[in-house]
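your task:
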Amino acid sequence: MSAISCSIAASVIGITDFGTFLNYVVVGFVCKALVEVLFVPATSLVIGCIKKREPSYGV
């Protein structure tokens, strides 16, 4: 999430102090980055399969 969407969501879910907000942003960033790292191999595999079957890619 971006800082703007985190700010909006924080006020909606009841985060009022800066320490909790900072924790919310950092944990969100770490979780997002971890999910991206974990899904890169699967995404690469799927894209590779699609490129093999798609004649317009020329691979």
